[in-house]
Specification:
Blueprint lengths: L5 H5 L3 H4 L11 H20 L3 H17 L5 H25 L4 H17 L4 H19 L8 H17 L3 H4 L2 H19 L6 H21 L9 H11 L1 H18 L5 H14 L18 H17 L19 H14 L1 H23 L7 H9 L7 H25 L6 H16 L3 H20 L6 H21 L2 H4 L5 H18 L5 H25 L6 H30 L7 H20 L19 H13 L6
Length: 652
């Protein structure tokens, strides 16, 4: 084989360059407009009343709100903005009280970092809250704040509330519009899935359906409509979303049928898209639906036909069926129960303590460098560590590299602004433009977000300490130092960062798949339990896929190992699909499988899970799964054998 050309050999590895490719996402124009107003208006007010520093602090609070405004549903946006502001107020208060106190400041920020890291593992809102707690504590300990101590948290909180007010302007007119759009998008993704049956695009479309279902359930159930009469529109949306489940369950059977007998009729995906249009119609479409579908003959075709007619009846029903408004994954627990679970997870989770200690070590080192060593360092070192070490933002290694490049690009833009634009009223239009870049660039990737946020923070910092162009180069050095601390103290010193057992969560998913097989054919017909198990499996596999994709951005050996394990992730997803297809075929006329055949499949899956946990390397295992070659479980046995050929326990 000919060797690759020189330029190819010298090109940087894919794991290093992946973050520099902008994501193909649309620009969120509404968020762009909110950010421009939220960050520039406080500056204008501060200049008008002769207190530009106060305006800068309000804008800093607004910046936190803009970064945290990532949800679609209005209720979740309230939580994502308002709750973190409370933690941010606590953070800036602690930082302000520790400002200029040397070892006290080091101890305070280290403790805050420990708490921030531990609570970040609870969920999305807690993660943003932990980020803002530490971020504001770092800023408070690094910049002089106005007296008395309560003024800084008050001004920062006003900025966050200003963003929240701008966000809620459309609530009276749109209310459930985000939820309705999400449910309609789920129907459309299912239509694309049926259109892709029998083609190589099926797996990709199935993953898109899983992601869309997760988002829709999260949005709709965030409203927690327990009282049907008070939220009839939302109850109807939940019933329509639940009606998607039979369509999703029938899709694997349709895929198998399309592979054996050719593509489905084009009227089926067209009918699903018509249902999506009906869901999105704000006025609602009622009355008997008209469906022109082919006559079903095989069990898979009967399953699709039944699911489609049922979904059409639910979508066009005037009033939702009260028996079909429960969440198929289980309704969210009461708030006190979730708080108790979260507290237990934070206090007794090894992963929570481990990450909290890693973050505390890095922040302690950064703050010690700032507070104790007599060199001109700034809060920017600890600020860099805070952003790089966030656990749910991606790989620490790749984020350190991306932040270094993003900061350099942002500082170049900041240098132009600080050198050419006079301070004062010119700050307002400049801030309007720079703030608008934040949501536009954040959607493209971490490096792009860093490049957009850097000049905004520098301009606001200059308003507070009046250092001008002299801020630029020290901030670049500080960012490189912060990235170095994160790489050494937060990555290289922790073996699990680069010797991680990448298959642990996959092993859990395989074990759950074995349980799902037993649940589907175990003789105890509990459709609700089976539906919940399948949805949980698909959600967990979606998380596993995201974690593996994140691991692919790590340097060797972690990234190399993830690449080797990737086919097994795909194989497990196909096993779940094959199990669902078999159950659906049985439900629509195919003969039940032999219990011994079911037990053999379950046993093989549990051995596969054991093998994944027992080794960091893949060991090929050849296994024979006897059974009826024409039976309903034949495709499932083939998928299990294929997975066992990839990995299993090394018994030699």
């Amino acid at each position: 084989m000919a060797r690759p050309a020189g330029p190819t050999r010298l090109s940087p590895p894919a794991w290093l360059t992946a973050g520099f490719r902008p994501a193909p996402t649309p620009v969120p124009w509404a968020a762009v407009g909110r950010a421009a107003v939220a960050l520039s208006a406080p500056l204008a007010v501060g200049l008008a009343v002769g207190q530009p520093a106060y305006g800068a602090l309000v804008s800093m609070g607004a910046l936190s709100g803009v970064i945290g405004d990532t949800a679609d549903a209005y209720r979740m946006r309230i939580l994502n903005i308002a709750v973190p502001q409370l933690f941010g107020a606590v953070g800036v208060t602690l930082g302000t009280l520790a400002f200029g106190h040397g070892w006290v400041a080091v101890a305070v920020l280290t403790l805050v970092a420990l708490v921030s890291g531990m609570i970040s593992s609870i969920g999305a809102v807690a993660s943003v809250s932990g980020l803002l707690l530490l971020l504001n504590a770092v800023v408070g300990a690094g910049l002089p704040m106005p007296d008395p101590w309560w003024k800084a948290p008050l001004l920062l909180g006003l900025g966050g509330l200003f963003v929240l007010a701008l966000t809620l302007l459309g609530w009276p007119l749109r209310r459930a519009a985000p939820e309705r759009a999400a449910v309609a998008a789920t129907f459309r993704s299912v239509g694309e899935l049926y259109e892709a049956t029998g083609t190589p695009a099926y797996d990709e479309k199935r993953q898109a359906v899983t992601a869309s279902l997760n988002q829709s359930y999260d949005l709709v159930l965030a409203r927690r409509a327990r009282q049907h009469g008070r939220a009839s529109s939302l109850v109807r949306l939940l019933a329509q979303l639940n009606a998607v489940i039979p369509l999703v369950e029938a899709a694997p059977a349709a895929q198998l049928r399309a592979r054996l007998h050719g593509p489905l009729s084009a009227t089926i995906p067209a009918a699903v898209r018509e249902l999506a249009d009906a869901v999105e119609d704000e006025e609602g479409r009622t009355g008997a639906p008209v469906l022109d579908l082919p006559t079903p003959e095989r069990p898979a075709e009967k399953a699709v036909d039944h699911a489609l007619r049922y979904a059409a009846a639910v979508v066009h029903r005037t009033e939702p069926d009260a028996s079909n408004v429960d969440d198929r994954l289980g309704r969210p627990a009461a708030l006190r129960v979730r708080v108790r679970r979260a507290a237990r997870a934070v206090l007794f989770s090894e992963a929570s303590w481990r990450y909290g200690l890693r973050l505390a070590l890095c922040i302690g080192l950064a703050q010690a460098l700032v507070s104790l060593i007599p060199v001109p360092r700034s809060y920017w070192v600890a600020l860099t560590v805070t952003f790089v070490m966030k656990p749910d933002f991606g790989s620490v290694f790749s984020r350190a590299v991306l932040r270094a490049f993003g900061t350099a690009a942002g500082l170049l833009l900041a240098a132009l602004v600080l050198a050419e634009v006079p301070r004062g009223w010119w700050d307002v239009p400049v801030m309007c433009v720079l703030a608008a870049l934040i949501p536009a660039f954040s959607a493209k990737g971490y490096a792009f977000q860093t490049a957009a946020i850097t000049p905004v923070i520098l301009l606001l910092s200059d308003t507070l300490n009046q250092q001008g162009f002299g801020l630029v180069m020290p901030r670049l050095y500080d960012s490189l130092i912060g990235c170095g601390i994160a790489l050494i103290a937060g990555y290289l010193l922790w073996p699990e960062s680069w010797h991680s057992r990448i298959g642990d969560r996959l092993a859990d998913a395989v074990a759950d798949t074995a349980t799902y097989v037993a649940c589907a054919f175990g003789g105890l017909e509990d459709q609700g339990r089976r539906l919940r198990a399948r949805r949980k499996l698909y959600r967990d596999l979606s998380t596993v896929r995201s974690e593996f994709q994140r691991a692919l951005t790590e340097p060797p050996p972690t990234g190399t190992r993830a690449t080797a394990w990737w086919p097994l992730v795909v194989a497990v997803e196909r096993i779940v699909d094959a199990t669902t297809a078999a159950r659906i075929r049985v439900d629509h006329g195919a003969p039940e499988p032999d219990p011994a055949e079911v037990a053999a499949v379950e046993r093989e899956l549990r051995e596969l899970a054991q093998g994944i946990r027992a080794s960091d390397t893949l060991v090929e295992v050849r296994s024979e799964l006897p059974g009826d070659e024409n039976g309903v479980l034949a495709p499932l046995r083939q998928e299990v054998s294929a997975a066992r050929a990839i990995a299993g326990p090394d018994l030699r």
